[in-house]
Write a structure and sequence with these properties.
This protein is α+β, with helices and mostly antiparallel strands. It has twelve helices and 14 strands. The strands form four sheets. The protein has a four-stranded antiparallel sheet with strand order 1-6-5-7. A four-stranded antiparallel sheet has the order 8-13-12-14, with helices on one face. Helix 8 runs antiparallel to helix 9. 35% of the residues are buried.
């Protein structure tokens, strides 16, 4: 992995994939000027911006925002103008109209001689509805050549960053691994994974990708040996390769999480199987004051981290339980274990944290992630389609 990027390096990559296909000269000049300023800004701290050392094309992101921005009437119009402002003049919607009713927002605009409109549902949430992105996709796909605003998957939480180019150029970037897997706005809603980079065909190629990222740096040698063998086994057995990186697996069909003591036992099992990468000195379990959850505390080096597991409640604020009497959780328990390991890492200054992957049978695979590694913020590395990459906030 290079230690820094120069403008000429990234421009060469963009030229290789014909990124500026369909850009008039003025738009291309503005885009390259934008790239220079982005590289200059990131160059102040390449450790903080290491993801761009692996995936250079996201340096072309020119539209930034927060998905939680629909507060008042006119919010969608303002959001659309921000996409136009970041398009280098390629996307110029006019006659933007927005009217709020009790439960629906009537939104429309004109572009390229066509009117695009949608009734966007509104139920009190201030998050951008997927209908906005579908309308945006429809309008940009009608450009010549067909274009798309794309949000690369590089781990911003609810914040977003979009770039605009031809769809063909984006596909070339994905094929050349210059872009991570991407969220196209509607993919989280309907499960569409078109446009995401495929996993490598062989275990050797997958492991070579991890080596390129210095993935196993600072990890125990015994774990690295197990992980490499695990990835090879996953390929042989037709499983997703990231499952081979796991040090521990929870099967909800055989794992009892009905009491806080048994949940603590699971946390201890994750610790014991971690080759010392998650090594708390004590794990405490107690009820939360209102009785609607459990709190777990891990202690190490005279420091501690806490996380709560909350139960689902019915309309009368009673804990919902399954047919075995176990409480239903508001979120899967393994996510909270991951949050716990992250908080302990932050407290003790560690360089690794755990996250979990879930397969279609709800098994949770616990995988150690190197903190700050750009690959750890990309769902492409961990796979797509049937396997969810759950990131901690």
């Amino acid at each position: 992995m290079p230690e820094e990027l120069r403008f000429t390096d990234v421009k060469a990559v963009l030229t290789e994939i014909d990124w500026f296909e369909g850009f008039p000269a003025k738009a291309k000049t503005e885009a390259l000027d934008h790239l220079k300023s982005r590289i200059a800004e990131c160059g102040k701290d390449w450790d903080e911006n290491a993801v761009y050392l692996v995936y250079p094309v996201p340096l072309m992101i020119s539209v930034w925002g927060d998905t939680e921005c629909i507060h008042d009437e006119g919010a969608y119009a303002e959001l659309l103008r921000s996409f136009a402002d970041g398009s280098f003049g390629l996307f110029s919607p006019t006659n933007i109209r927005e009217e709020w009713d009790d439960s629906v927002i009537h939104f429309s605009f004109d572009a390229h001689g066509t009117t695009y409109s949608a009734d966007i549902p509104f139920e009190g949430s201030d998050y951008v509805d997927v209908g906005f992105f579908k309308l945006l996709d429809e309008a940009t796909a009608a450009m010549d050549p067909p274009m798309r605003f794309l949000c690369p998957e590089i781990g911003w939480g609810q914040d977003f960053g979009y770039l605009l180019s031809s769809i063909a150029a984006q596909e070339r970037a994905l094929e050349m691994n210059y872009l991570p897997g991407s969220d196209k706005g509607d993919s989280s809603e309907d499960g569409d994974t078109e446009g995401e980079a495929p996993l490598p065909d062989t275990a050797d190629d997958y492991l070579a990708w991890l080596d390129r990222l210095d993935w196993f740096k600072d990890m125990p040698g015994a774990y690295v040996t197990q992980a490499r063998e695990g990835v090879a086994a996953a390929y042989r057995e037709g499983r997703f390769p990231p499952t081979g990186l796991a040090t521990h697996v929870i099967d909800p069909g055989t794992t009892d999480l009905s009491t806080k003591e048994r949940m603590r036992d699971v946390i201890e099992a994750v610790a014991k199987s971690s080759y010392g990468m998650f090594a708390p000195e004590r794990i405490l379990a107690e009820d939360v004051p209102n009785g609607n959850g459990w709190q777990f505390t891990v202690e190490k080096d005279d420091k501690s981290a806490k996380v709560c597991v909350w139960f689902e409640l019915d309309d009368d604020d009673n804990v919902i339980r399954d047919d075995k009497g176990a409480p239903e959780f508001e979120m899967p328990a393994n996510i909270d274990i991951c949050s716990l390991t992250l908080r302990l890492q932050e407290t003790t200054g560690g360089t690794l944290r755990y996250t979990s992957l879930e397969d279609d049978d709800d098994r949770a695979y616990f995988v150690p992630l190197p903190v700050g590694n750009p690959g750890a913020s990309s769902s492409w590395f961990l796979g797509t389609l049937d396997l969810d990459f759950l990131e901690d906030d």
